[in-house]
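Example 159, ligand flavin mononucleotide.
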Amino acid sequence: MKSLVVYYSLTGKTRLVAEAIAEALNATLLEIEERRPIPFPFVYLSGGFAAFTNRGSKINPIDVDSKQYERIFVGSPVWASRPTPAINSFIYQTNFEGRSVIPFFTMGGDDSKKALANITAKIEKRQGKVAGSFAITSYKVSDGQIIARAKEAARTYSS
Ligand SMILES: Cc1cc2nc3c(=O)[nH]c(=O)nc-3n(C[C@H](O)[C@H](O)[C@H](O)COP(=O)(O)O)c2cc1C
């Protein structure tokens, strides 16, 4: 199955997962970049607020046509129990009709339920079918362990 792994990452944890998934499934990797990233520590307040209120942010143009892919993994850190503004922007500008979508998160805590419900509603509103999901805790976990968990998750989706 032709797969695309789209992700946004501020501090690199979601990138580790996205890269491991793309490598394991031989998928195309697409990083969503903000035009004007909010620096620390301001991101906690204004980025968190923007995520909490389902805002998008200005992102760099995307040069991959997601229509070419049957399955799209969409990865984001959890911010304020929500997906990030950058990933919201990607979702808001995409029509997922006819495609399986697999959202995934990294997070400091261990509860992705609200973020997952939120992103699922947004994907379904844009005609996507959510065909799975996973979340990986990044707090006090080594990069190697994050990658190992990502590879484990990828096995579920290898066919
Ligand atoms: C603005 C902001 C808000 C966050 N909110 C949450 C949260 O609500 N729940 C949680 O578990 N982690 C939260 N985190 C932690 C991140 O989800 C976690 O560190 C994630 O793995 C970072 O991914 P990245 O390295 O790809 O940016 C937050 C981090 C930031 C910067």
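Summary: The chain has a mean pLDDT of 97.
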